[in-house]
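lol ok so funny story. i was supposed to be doing the assay writeup but got distracted and ended up predicting the structure for this chain instead. priorities right. anyway since i did it might as well share w the group, maybe its usefull for someone
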Amino acid sequence: MLNPPRSLPVRGRTVPAATGLLLVLEDRLEGHDTFLTGTLTLDGHDIPVRITTLDDSTTLQPTQPLPDDLPEQWSATLHLGHGQRPRDIPDDLRATAHASRRDLDALDDAELRYALTFLGEATTPAIRTDRLTAIVTGLPTLEGDPE
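and the output, tada:
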């Protein structure tokens, strides 16, 4: 379940690309679904954008022509209609890790995000079980437990 839509203050720069100008955020968006759309309010313009986050950067690709007067460096508000991803560890993942004496706390933010997405996209119970096993097997054992 997603949390309510959000409006986030963002800073970035305008970068030319083969497909037209891109708006690259100074800081990567954390914990938000991307590859979706939003609206960037920048210098009085509401700019519909496609949000793409890869590894360490977030890029906004305008879906309509940009105004001519946008600055190279800017501050704006990004409106996300789809909210923030839940970061809660599902009960079955927590129980499987506990039963296997594996340490879920060893995952950093990116690893947790990838693991939760991988698990959440399972389309059948059998696939979910296999994905639970894959995630938990990759975790370190709890401290004090023999390997």
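The chain is about 25% helix and 35% strand. Residues 119 and 131 are 6 Å apart (CA to CA).
back to the writeup now i swear
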